[in-house]
Structure formats: C-alpha cells, structure tokens
Amino acid sequence: xxxxxxxxxxxxxxxxxxxxxxxxxxxxxxxxxxxxxxxxxxxxxxxxxxxxxxxxxxxxxxxxxxxxxxxxxxxxxxxxxxxxxxxxxxxxxxxxxxxxxxxxxxxxxxxxxxxxxxxxxxxxxxxxxxxxxxxxxxxxxxxxxxxxxxxxxxxxxxxxxxxxxxxxxxxxxxxxxxxxxxxxxxxxxxxxxxxxxxxxxxxxxxxxxxxxxxxxxxxxxxxxxxxxxxxxxxxxxxxxxxxxxxxxxxxxxxxxxxxxxxxxxxxxxxxxxxxxxxxxxxxxxxxxxxxxxxxxxxxxxxxxxxxxxxxxxxxxxxxxxxxxxxxxxxxxxxxxxxxxxxxxxxxxxxxxxxxxxxxxxxxxxxxxxxxxxxxxxxxxxxxxxxxxxxxxxxxxxxxxxxxxxxxxxxxxxxxxxxxxxxxxxxxxxxxxxxxxxxxxxxxxxxxxxxxxxxxxxxxxxxxxxxxxxxxxxxxxxxxxxxxxxxxxxxxxxxxxxxxxxxxxx
Length: 505
What we know:
Structural class: alpha+beta
Strand content: 5-15%
Shape: globular
Number of domains: 2
Largest sheet: 4 strands, mixed
Number of strands: 8
Number of helices: 20
CATH topology of the largest domain: 2-methylcitrate dehydratase PrpD
Oligomer: single chain
Order of helices and strands: EHHHEEHHHHHHHEHEHHHHHEHEEHHH
CATH class of the largest domain: Mainly Alpha
C-alpha cells in the first residue's frame, strides 16, 4: 500500500491534479488488476448476502416506495435498462441503483467495515450491477468494479473520520461507487477523477439521519449515494468537470466539513499492480442490527440460555455494558437519545439501541429480523422493565481495540456486568461476533447460502433461490445477457397487495 498524505491547500498554493486524493483514487480505478481467487470468492459471497437481505425487505414500505419511483422511469436510450429486485420491470440504471440500494440497506443486515469511520461496503454493489446490466458488461468486469468499490471505500474509512464531524458515512460511498463504475467501464483516470469529485461534493450530509427518531431515510441515504455515483460518471463521460481540489481545497470538504484547514490525513491506497484485497477485511452480519450490536447479541443469547434468571427484571438491579466510545455514543446510552428506550420507537431507532437489542436477545435467546422488532415485542412489560436497567459506559480498553490496526486485536464487543438483587454479579465479555472471521463460527459460503435460504422462506420459490445461486456463483464467467439473472422474483408481488402511495412520477 502507498500512504498518501492529504492536507488542505490554500488557493495561492496550487495542488497539481496528479497529487490530489481524487486523482490517486482514479488511478486505482483505472488500472486493470486481476483479483485474486479469495477476493473473487468473497465478491460472490457478498452478492449472495445482498440478495438475501433485499429479499427479506421486499414488502417493506420504503422498499415499495423506492421501487415505485424506479418503475416510473423506463430504461434510458443508452442501454437495455437494469433490473429492480422483486419487479418484472427494467428501468434506467440510476433508478435501479436507487431502488435496489434501498432494498439492500433497509434491514441493516449486510456487510460492514469499521475503522476511523463506519461503512457498509456492500452498498457499492447495486449501482455497479445496474450499470453493468444496462450497458451489457461481463461478469468478470463487474467483479473487478466491485473490488474497486470495496477497496476505495475501505481505504477512505481507514483514514478519514466523518462521524466525528457529524457527516454521514455515505460521503465515502459516493466516491467509491463512482470509482467502481470507472473500473467496470474501463474509464481513464481523467474521467474517473471528475466523477469522484462530483460524487463527494454531492453526497456530504449530516448524521441527523442516524440520530434521535431515526427515519426511513437511513435506508435511502446509501441508495442516494449510489444513484448520484451513476449520474456523476455519466456527466464525467460527457466531459463535465467537478470542484477541484474537492478534498484539499481551501473551501473544500476537509477544510470546512472535517478537521479544518490544519488537517492532515494519511490515506492508504494500493500501489501499481498491487492486489486489491480490502474486501477481505470486511465482515457481514448474522443478525439484523447495527454491526456494533452483533457481538452483544451473541453474548446475550448465550447468557439467556445459560442463566434464565437473568431474563426477569425482578432479579436484576442493573446491566452495564462496558464498550467502545463508538458503541456507547452511537447505539448506547451515551448518545443521549431518549428514543433508544422508547417502546414506541421506530424499527430504525431500535436497531440502533443496544440497550433494547441486548434485552431482547437475552430474554429470547435468539434474534429475528422481524419478530425481534415487532411493536408488541418492544412493548412487553417485562422487556421494558429490564431494558430500562441496561446502560452503556465507555471503556478505554475497548475503544483502543475498536481502533486497533492489528486484525487480531481489533474488536467490537465489550464486557457486561450484571448486578442481581441477591448481590451476585455476573461478568462476561466478548470481543467479536460469532460470524466474524475471528469469531466462534466465521461465515463461509455455506453460511451466506443458508442466510439467503432462511430469509427467502415464504418469499421466494425454492426453484428461484436455486436459480439465483447458480447465477451468482458463476459470476466471473457470466456473459452480459446473464447479468439480468442477478435479481429475484417473489412468489407473490407485495406491490399488488400493498401498493406504494402515488407521488410525482
């Protein structure tokens, strides 16, 4: 990896284009590097993973609304159009990226990478697949595009914290998706550079979308970034330019939205000919919840099975989760969000409430992407009673491990201390989720396939699941016409029984 030093440059201190971060990203995207076998294998896993979580969300209101918007836009004249998950219609690629991005993101259930910032790198896949279908690209080209998208997003997340300045993490996704599309289409650095700059400039937004009463926009935010990425590449291909230098400029993103005019970052990017392996550092979710809750769900399930008495609020004085700064302030009591303790809160809010999640996993000994968030489940009196005894606190040791660069040291869990009315104290800890590469049961191909089969029950015919798996697992060999098979059609169209309200389109 080459470590690129990035800082703000005054207007009277011009920065050559070739030294700008957006250009360095563009050079990575423009170089043709064959992915390694293990990287290709993981790309296939993540395509299956995205299909699984999208399948489980097909009937949800936000997904139906996004789909209706997409279906109102027929394929543009530049290609054959792209598929929309759950739909028989093809649509213009930017709208397919939009609808499919919402379906993938809706349940907060696909892959993650956490470092200086947060990310869900699987969000790169919908816009890349849409463009590939529309323009008739091969499966091999799509794989290389996805590899670039993951590489760029992960490398930005390693180096630049957005959340510290309350900027939403999709500001790293816009540039990565634009870069991935550049690789997919074999575009030169000049074109990708312009697209990356436009994508960053138009996808910076505040983190209020993940604060307080969290709205349906949480699922739309990455879909918006993917849609914008498609549009920015289109404009760049037509010779249109973008703000420059977009990162380092005196009035640019770093100077005014991030660490300010004196900021310095070190961004790692692969050197010439170096394999792009960042996807191997990412990890998926076994449970439908914020990633920092994954290990806590596993610990709570085990504790509940081993100690059923812990499930009764009458037996418990307090439950304190000692964890990282991120977990405490984003999904814990350190956020200061009263909604995280509100039984009437939205699903989007509850999946960002570790006090709620830990309580339900402890009481049920299980976690379900629908049942665990049901209003009647959240309102159960014994759950509310125990839930309100759960708090979080920051532990410097767990914060250090959260930010560790050594993968054997990096952790996203913590230590729970439960005080019982008898005076007994129960103390347990967990470092990583069971499904994590270093966890008790690391996810492999069979687990991704099982996740799809589980989430497809009652939604897809068994033959449809098998058809999709056959196509997905041949991804690097797919001819252009076969890419249309990377979607799913449900047994019963939820739009027929729960149509989305009409809008403008």
